[in-house]
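Quick one, T. Sequence first:
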Amino acid sequence: MPDDLKAAARQKVSDCSKAVESAGRQSLFYMVDEDDLCRVFAFSEYAARQCLRNPGMIRELLESGDLERLYPTDQYQQYVARAAGQAADEDGLAVALRRLRHREMVRIAWRDLTGRADLFETMAELSALADACVQQGLDFLYPLLCSKYGQPEDAGGNAQQMVVFAMGKLGGRELNFSSDIDLMFAFPEAGHTRSEEKSISNEEFFTRLVRRLIDVIGKSTPEGFVFRVDTRLRPYGDSGPLVMSFDSMENYYQMFGREWERYALVKARLIAGDKQRGEAFFDRLRPFVFRRYLDYGTFESIREMKQKIVREVVRKGLADNIKHGYGGIREIEFFGQVFQLIRGGIDPAYQERSILKVLQVMRKDRGITGKVYEELTSAYVFLRNTENRLQMYEDMQTHSLPADPRARTRLALSMGFDSEKDFIRALDAHMSRVHFHFNQLLGQESTEAEAQSETGLGSVWLTPGQTDQNRQNLEAAGFEEPDTVLRLLGEFRDKTGYGEDGHIATARINRLMPRVLGAVAETDRPLLVLKRIMTLLDAILNRSCYISLLLENPGALEHLVRLARISPWIVSFLSQHPLLLDELLDVRSMYAPLDRAALAGDLRQRLEKSGGDDPELQMDAIRVFKQVNMFRIVAADVTGHLPLMQVSDRLTYLAETILDAALDLTWHQMVERYGKPLAIDGDPGNTGFAVIAYGKLGGYELGYRSDLDLVFLHTAQPGQTTGGRLRPIDNSEFFGRLGQRIIHFLSAPTSTGKLYEIDMRLRPSGNAGILVSHMDAFEEYQSRHAWTWEHQALIKARPIIGDFQVARRFADVRTRVIAARRNTEQLAGAVLEMRERMRSAREFSHNGLFDLKQDPGGIVDIEFLVQFLILCHGSRHEQLGQWTDVVRQLNALALCRIIADLDAHALKQAYLIYRYFVHRMNLQEKKAVLPENRFAELRRRVVRIWRKVFGQ
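Structure tokens:
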């Protein structure tokens, strides 16, 4: 141990000894080997801190001899029962359990760090402590609730008790030092408690019992916690009931149970409650977990679970995570549990909860070789010891190697290594072997892809010095301009191999690049596609997890090349947001964008998982939601799975879903701070505020880079807010700040990008007007002060989120504006003047080219035509104001015989064709201009109709 670390440890020992002596007791540290004391106090700040805070505890541990002995099987049940027996009430129980927990965790850390206990003894004692705390907590709380609500009974009047199943590490008796505990709760039958005054249902009784048990064990208090409790493995997860009846839980698994839930139940173990009934109930679940045949049909689901593990490593950047990273603990556990799911139904030997026992069964059954068994077993022991040493230092639930060099050195020393370098070398070796076996588990990587390195294209990357041969190989594979390809590859090769993990990155790139060249060579434009792919690879070069994703999933590379061939915009989008690469692993979702309802559900789940009420985390969750779903839309679009009109619809639904969430989150933040505006009740749907969509969003015509044209309206009464934690503010000020927050929420740049550019210039008086208008003022402005072009804009406007009453009032105003009688000549003059101003304001002219949007006969001309005709004839035809999109507005104009069917058809055809090509040009990252002879006949038709309508 380095001198400075030993000196610091000795100082802690001295401080603790003085604390014991100041309490009038002898420290007894003379009974302990000095090296053992230094190891404990150097490698566990938590143990040192607890000994200093409670000097009597360390003396009692030394006197009792508990530091030297392994507890018998029932020792923890006795200790915890004794502590619980001294508690007067629920609060006293919580304190007693936390103090006992500190004593026992110091003891366990002491024995582990000084070599008195091996890994298996440490895991077993941690698990036994957790078992005892849950059982004794339940035994203490159950009679308390019975005294208040009566004893729960079934239909026959028989008393009922709950059962508690441990899942995960606790289920396998493999708990780590600062682990949470995964629990699942059930009770035998529906019924009610026996009480004349406060009878409640059994479900309500046991739900209250579970909540109080979780608080007693898992709640953080000044005394700390006992064990963090995680209940997300229960049926329906976080959205499901905390406790279910046996029948309800069995029905769930039989009807809705998924493969990962079978996986989770493999380790389930009854630890508390009615043991007899609990074991009988689990026997009912066993056929779901372990099928009574060789379940090779589950391979597809298992592959999906494996891909999920890979995606999580990529998404969360878990390279230094010894549990979740490549080659980590979870990959070993997955390796064994796959065999359990496949063979457990016909061979009970596989129905083990301990992963090491499962590996023993697999070796005995020749499912794995002795070498694989030894490598996985030794890696598991090494990684679990590392995990415990990481967590023993501060009693924190961490699985990531510390970034601080001093902390890494301390970890290495605690693991018995002389230096950090030796420790990291051993760790890398173990994790590399684990990851290799994990990759072999469901079939090796594509032999075709591996063979690519032996072909000509493989040598192009691997032997850059053979220029002439490489040029010939590229030409033979169909690459035009082979010298350009060699230059691109050379420039990229110069960038690889640097950084902290340079040699690892280089090895991965050397395996990936032959596959990239092979996949690109299959396209009809290999050089163009290679340039686009290289842009992405350049962006992810220092993110080795993404390189690994493409390596380990040949299908992902195949789809990436396919998309890159079609659109450079997609490659740019992926380069900006590489976390989207994991979408390539699931083709079904990638080419099937969500509908409106599914989008709302997806966002709701992401927000629930984002970390509570932290605005930054919520904003990041919404941005990732947008990126993922935008990618799904564009992937379906460019591959022909989604026609143009539906693309715009899906982009509109996506924007509306995000706006709805933005309003909901910012509204609650404002109300929490300032209270509700006057005359607004508690109904979330009655906020007195609405968002109006104009332009492309209003007309269901959004593109991938469209701004959102918005107007905010409110209907608050005069007065101030009430009920907030800060001083009240004027109602109008409240809504002004709300509007500002929404805009900031949507447009503020973060680490995950921004959501949308927001354009508020269409509000009354434009940029000179107030941000959020009162509905009365908006109505007056539209009826008395608005320009004709503002009424044109109103034709595409619609309320999208917020208060229904405000939305209805806006719709009424819009209807009246459209239905107002107008002088046709004056209207035509105003529309033509605005159109001419737009043409004059253009900065560039495209000689010999046709601007699909702005040139005569283009998109804007069609929109102006439609808007003029609606304003001109709206007073006589109410149905003209029904729609906000151009296509259905043209249908309405034809139905009212304002324009001929042939003219309406010609305008719709031109509009849709123009929009399609604008859309495609955007995806190619090009301006929306084409040769002027393109669509010449369409343009002539539009211009002819324009002249006929305006008399020009």
